[in-house]
Design brief:
The protein is of the alpha+beta class. Among the domains are: about 65-95, no CATH class; about 95-190, Nuclear Transport Factor 2, Chain: A. Helices cover about 30% and strands about 15% of the residues. It has 6 helices and 6 strands. The strands form 2 sheets. The protein has a 4-stranded antiparallel sheet, with helices on one face.
């Protein structure tokens, strides 16, 4: 007989054997729960540890509420919370993009920086000192002021606040401004 006929004959012999029929009968006797029915377990059955419900969780709880995670231990006041539900996010949304790099500084920290810089204030080029359009957060400082009038922050300021390394300052009119020295963008303004 060809090889395929032997394979077919062998499969038929196994299916026709009495042991296979018994196993098939035993399998059909097990109850299969419907999809929406709860599974009934015997008192002697052990439950898998992963199947136990964690305390404080609700199987039907929504994963998000007001745009924030509801899982136990999830942080509540985060930057990803929508501004209509978080006052902190709303305040961040009102900040100009250029000023966002200094949002972590408190008002007291900013005033101490300006007090330190006020002692070292420099004057800008005479023709540009009255042009206060550049003394606005997000404004670009002209190249002639950037080349002649920008000074790096003093080392004692950058030692206290290392994230301000690379920030420069100058005086525009009567205002002291902090400038991102690479982009020449005003990041903060203080009236003197």
């Amino acid at each position: 007989m060809p090889k395929t006929l032997w394979s077919i004959a062998f499969a038929v012999a196994i299916l026709a054997s009495p042991g296979f029929a018994v196993a098939e009968d035993q399998k059909s006797e097990l109850p299969v729960p419907r999809m929406n029915e709860p599974v009934k377990t015997d008192a002697n059955d052990k439950q898998e540890p992963s199947a136990t419900k964690s305390p404080g969780t609700d199987a039907n709880a929504a994963p998000f509420a007001n745009g924030m995670l509801t899982a136990p231990g999830a942080p509540t006041d985060v930057d990803t919370a929508p501004s209509k539900f978080s006052p902190r996010s709303a305040a961040d949304d009102r900040l100009p993009t250029a000023a966002y790099c200094l949002k972590h500084l408190s008002a007291a920290q900013k005033s101490s920086i300006y007090a330190e810089l006020g002692n070292r204030a420099i004057s800008t080029l005479p023709g540009k000192a009255t042009d206060l359009r550049q003394a606005v957060v997000g404004a670009e400082i002209p190249a002639d002021i950037a080349l002649a009038g920008l000074q790096p922050l003093p080392q004692d300021v950058t030692t206290k606040l290392p994230e301000l390394t690379g920030v420069a300052f100058t005086t525009l009119g009567s205002k002291l401004v902090l400038v991102d020295s690479t982009m020449r963008i005003v990041i903060d303004v203080s009236a003197q």
